[in-house]
Amino acid sequence: MGQVSGLVPSRFLTLLAHLVIVITIFWTRDDNIRASLPPSFTSDQYKKEDSDVLPAFTEVIMFITVFVLKKKSF
């Protein structure tokens, strides 16, 4: 069996750190949205800011999909 280079563990740690950060962001999504709005905000402003979170979720799904597809042998 070959020796593991330093690149593989760093890629894994980078992927794991990215996943942990995104999970944390989505768990605290409501607090983050409220922090970005003025003290008196309308429900329309809240809905708009909430919909702006969607690109981050899409990025994570695409990142994980590409990583899984790279590892899968066809």
TrEMBL record:
Keywords: Cilium biogenesis/degradation, Membrane, Transmembrane, Transmembrane helix. GO terms for biological process: non-motile cilium assembly; protein localization to ciliary transition zone. It comes from the Eukaryota. Its main location: membrane. It is a multi-pass membrane protein. It is found in: Membrane. The keyword Transmembrane helix applies. GO terms for cellular component: membrane; MKS complex. This is Transmembrane protein 107.
